[in-house]
Amino acid sequence: MPQTQAVKTFYTDNEKRGRVGHTIREYMGFFDESNGGGIEARKAQYATMINNYYDVVTDFYEHGWGQSFHFASRAEGESFEASLARAEHYLALQLGLKAGMKVLDVGCGVGGPMRSIARFSGASLEGVNNNDYQLEKVKSHNEKAGLGHLCSGFKGDFMNLQVPDQFYDAAYQIEATCHAPDKAGAFSEIHRALKPGALFAGYEWCMTDEFDPNDSQHQEIKLEIETGDSLPDIASIPETIQALETAGFEVIHSFDAATTSDPETPWYLPLLGESSSLLGIRRGRLGRRIARRTIGGLEALGIAPKGSKEVSQMLGRAAEGLIAGGEAGIFTPSYFFLAQRKA
Known about the structure:
The protein is α/β, with parallel strands linked by helices. The chain contains 14 helices and 7 strands. It has helices spanning 2-10, 14-29, 39-44, 46-65, 80-95, 112-121, 132-144, 183-193, 216-229, 237-246, 269-272, 278-283, 285-300, 308-328; strands spanning 102-106, 124-129, 151-155, 168-174, 194-207, 249-256, 331-341. The chain has a 7-stranded mixed β-sheet with strand order 3-2-1-4-5-7-6, sandwiched between helices. Helix 8 (183-193) links the parallel strand 4 (168-174) and strand 5 (194-207). Helix 2 crosses helix 4 (46-65), helix 5 (80-95) crosses helix 6 (112-121) and helix 9 packs across helix 14 (308-328). The longest helix has 21 residues, at 308-328. The chain starts with a helix and ends with a strand.
């Protein structure tokens, strides 16, 4: 199963093995309000929190999901992989990307969307990422794909990019700025780095209008998603639009792309599990259950480091939170926006 393979891949490095337990405990502390955790702690120490998270989950994600760490709307009969590529190519089309353009990928992960968009458009893409382990993977994957001339990653924080003003021809983010402690601040920094008239597009994680902050069950689902996905506080759709406008962008159009899925193929279907392929089974509930038991056994035998089972359990709870949020209609991972920096 993918999580088992992730343990074998990531934890063969003795240094990484030794810090897994400490890292996951430190990460979970950001969500423990009885010991100083909570939204404000997560915002204040967002860089540490996110780095801890991706240090321990990147291989789990890659082996269970692929190299594009995001969701997508999906049509009946469309494969999971095809839906991801379509979402990425839609961004490229909306931004008008073409050869010769210099484009910023905000929070590039291991670079799956970057490579897909580069092949599709011919544009040159630079991905900002604050996680060293993921940046190692970006470089390796780019070279293996023969795209080193178009794709690259650099160490940085999207709250403080350290690039010249008016440097990029376009920018996009795919489920990345949901990690920002201050969404308007992140968008302002992207605005600064774009040339006048340049476009910025993205898919944002949001609580929908169906979310009731006074409903304890809704709040529980929201916290489960935040805990399992390293989020300080999930914004609402109006808050996201307001943040873009505060940053100086003009929002050209926006919509919840998740709602365009066919009823038979909701965006969270991969988390439920699909029997059409072995990988589809791996992503779902059965795959997570088998992996959790296997990893627990490996940890008990000393083959996997302490903390491995806890990471697997955390990701399992996150998946259930996302499913619950999707089924209730209170959460979307795919609120699309296209905005322009005013000239």
